[in-house]
C-alpha cells in the first residue's frame, strides 16, 4: 500500500480484506492512529487486521486504556476515548510503549491527544457515510 491511500468500503467483508492488506505491509515499530466517529469501525478494523496475524479475542481497550496481544507479533492497542489528561497515559508508561521497536501499536481516538503522538506514524481516518459506506483515508507521517 502506498500512501496517501483512500478506499471506499461497502461491507464488513471489504473492511476485513482492507485490514488484512494493511497489516501485511506494516513492520514492527509502526505506530498506527485510527480516527473517526463512534461506530465508524476503528476497533473492527484493528480486530480484522490482528485476525490476519492469528490473534483472536481482540476487543476495545476503552476502559483498560491499553490491551496487549502476543503471538509471532507483539501488538499494543490503545484507546484514548476515556482519557481525561495526558498524565494518565504517562502513568501507564506510554513512552515505553511508543519506544518498543519490536511491536506494532494501534491507537484509537489519537486526535484527542495529538501533541504526544510520535512524529513517525500512519494515520487512518474512517468516515461513516449516510449510506453506511465507509471511507478509509491512510496517510503516513515522518
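Q: What amino acid sequence fits the structure above?
A:
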Amino acid at each position: 500500500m502506498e500512501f496517501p491511500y483512500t478506499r471506499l468500503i461497502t461491507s464488513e467483508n471489504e473492511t476485513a480484506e482492507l485490514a488484512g492488506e494493511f497489516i501485511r505491509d506494516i513492520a514492527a515499530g509502526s505506530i498506527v492512529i485510527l480516527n473517526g466517529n463512534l461506530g465508524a469501525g476503528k476497533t473492527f478494523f484493528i480486530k480484522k487486521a490482528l485476525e490476519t496475524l492469528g490473534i483472536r479475542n481482540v476487543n476495545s481497550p476503552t476502559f483498560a486504556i491499553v490491551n496487549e496481544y502476543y503471538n509471532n507479533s507483539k501488538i499494543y492497542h490503545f484507546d484514548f476515548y476515556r482519557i481525561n489528561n495526558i498524565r494518565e497515559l504517562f502513568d501507564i508508561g506510554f513512552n515505553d510503549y511508543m519506544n518498543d521497536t519490536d511491536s506494532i501499536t494501534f491507537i484509537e481516538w489519537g486526535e484527542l491527544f495529538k501533541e504526544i503522538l510520535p512524529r513517525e506514524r500512519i494515520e487512518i481516518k474512517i468516515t461513516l457515510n449516510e449510506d453506511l459506506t465507509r471511507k478509509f483515508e491512510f496517510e503516513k507521517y515522518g
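Q: And what stands out in the fold?
A: Helices lie at 12-24, 42-52, 86-91, 94-98.
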